[in-house]
Amino acid sequence: MPDAEDLRQFVAEQQVAERIPGDNGVVLDKMIDTKSWQELPPTDADLIVRPVLTRKELKAFIRLPRVLYKGMPGYVAPLDMEQNDLLDPKRNGIYRHASVRCFIAWRGNEPVGRISAVVDAKALEAWDEKIGWFGALDALPEHEIVRALLDTAEAWLRDQGMARMRGPVTLGYHGESGLMIDGHMEDPMIGTPWHPPALGPILEALGLEPTRDLLTFKLDLTDDLDDRHIVPGAMKPGEGKLGDVTVSHLSKKEITAQGEVLRSLYNDAWAGTYNFVPLQSYEMEGLIEQLKLVLRPEHYVQIDHAGEPAAMALVVPNIFDIARGIDGAPSPLGWVKLGARLVGHRFESARVILLGVSHKVRGTVLGALMPSLAIDELIRRRATLPYKSVELGWILDTNTPMLNLVKRLVPEPNKVHRLYEKAIPSRHN
């Protein structure tokens, strides 16, 4: 159960919340449900699901997981500033092309869960299917609470003309994906959601069908990696048969141009795969803005073939490493500690968030080598970075070539997240 003091503070903030329109009434208009909550699906007598209408409520929505999950084994609260980047309309570019609704479930005066519902115009274009997302699903693991949240998201998505819902996805493909099924006691990682173990069985009991597993592999950067060649014949760029293959680093002066190359390669590499939505230029700009303080030249690998970009990989340091012992909403002293650790780049782990190969070389011998070359290059750079481990994920459970490559280094995943789907019946059914 949530901590009593945290609950009192949470409720107090809601009682003084005022309706704040945002930027001239535009930003938050995308979050406000025009229906009253009396019209939302009925729940048990003490349970009500209300839409997030104000900035104070959005702040409460963002920090609710750490209230709900406090004290649960394996849970480590993320920094609010990281979640702000994910959920705040002023900071997440998805609001430029998607309709988003956020809801909090209440039992009396006690917050017991949250959920988001999203209709992504770019996803509808890419898929040509009427599928909406549910996400930000965090709740006490009780059937009644989870049912009320899912019913609310489903009702809103139905009103938007959606035929199916898929998730959890927060708030879009380039945010946080999946419900944690395995790895609850593993160290936390940037961009990786945590959920109570009981939540998955509840979703399935409520009729949601598992569709894909997203696998993460933890690669310990030990000295013996150099002897575990993942590139056949230990071939290297610029030598022999790879004489016209070159590797480049991140340049702070050219970060905007490199970001656009990365975006184009990434979109080209993953087009047509399950749940993929093309990354927009303004989303890439936002990502660079969020990461530029922690990015180093070694974090970005671009592999060119005959002068043309052919593959890429981007690694980001794990913000949880420098947040140890600091609350999700740091005190002034906490901010000083966080700043000092950031400046000193006191990270011990990182995550590969983008990896892909251009369609121009896909299906060729060179194309098959590209992921190996990118990962091998990242391994070689460990001497200049302080990381003890790197997580490779997400990798779809159907991506056999990538899984075969990664399993040569790490036999089993350390974390598994699952996506679910459910048909949305029409009101006449």
Automatic annotation (TrEMBL):
Protein name (record): N-acetyltransferase domain-containing protein
Source organism superkingdom: Bacteria
Chain segments annotated as transmembrane: none
Listed InterPro entries: Acyl_CoA_acyltransferase (IPR016181), BcerS-like (IPR039968)
